Amino acid sequence: MSEQVGKQALRSQEWIQTALFQLMEKKAYSHISITEITDRAGLARQTFYRNYQDKDEILLNYLDSLMKGMWENVGDTAVFNEEMFVILFRNWKSNAPSSLIYNIELKDRKIRQLIYKSICDFFDELSMDTIEENNESPEYTYRFYAHKSLSSIVHLMLIEWTLNHFHLSPEEIGRLVSDLTVSIRAHL
Q: Which of 91, 108, 131, 170 would bridge 70 by S-S if both were Cys, CB 3.0 to 4.6 A apart?
């Protein structure tokens, strides 16, 4: 019975995510309501809230899985180098859904915030777990702020590259990010 409930929840989550992305094809993310999502998915609001707290959670879950998928080719160790950035930009260009690109082009602030959060979360997972969280040492402080700076630069470059219709190749933008972040990455 619990296996059936699990399958049903996964199916509902898939329908909800699909409905959100379909709505995002023609409307700014920030202007989409839960009611519109549930109506489009053919589900009750109660089903939505059984699976998600809000629509941000849907998009953040998607972005997190997209981000993790982008880095599969990199391996387990966090080596922030040119190759890693090239992989990120190549996979973003290949895998970011058109509805997400459309909302970036609309300059929807919430979309940008969620993309930034997914980058930060993933970089946290890759690099910050090796330092104690409550450590007040200078090494921790430098590493913490270097990490946040790197996340910010990668986010900014990803958004601007998308807004400029991928005018540089993934290799060119990856090299540029690598060159711009050399001094930051020295502290990671």
A: 91
pTM recorded for the entire structure = 0.87
Express each pLDDT in 131-140 by its tens digit.
Answer: 555 567 788 8
Contact 48, 19 (CB under 8 A): no
Question: Which of left, alpha, beta for 37 (phi over 0: left; psi -120 to 50: alpha)?
Answer: alpha
Say if residues 119 and 147 touch (Cβ distance below 8 Å): no
Domain locations along the chain: 2-52, 57-185
Judge whether 69 and 138 are in contact, CB under 8 Å: no
Residue 33: both structure tokens together? 């309501």
Among left, alpha and beta (phi > 0; psi -120 to 50; other), residue 75 is left
Query: 2-52 — its CATH code?
Result: 1.10.10.60
Long-range contact set of residues 59-67: C-beta below 8 Å, sequence gap at least 24: 59/20, 59/29, 59/111, 59/114, 60/114, 60/117, 60/118, 61/17, 62/17, 63/114, 63/115, 63/117, 63/118, 64/118, 64/121, 64/122, 66/95, 66/96, 66/118, 67/118, 67/119, 67/121, 67/122
Q: 22 burial class (0-12, 13-18, 19+ CB within 10 angstroms)?
A: middle
7-59: pLDDT as tens digits: 888 899 999 999 999 999 999 999 999 999 999 999 999 999 999 999 999 99
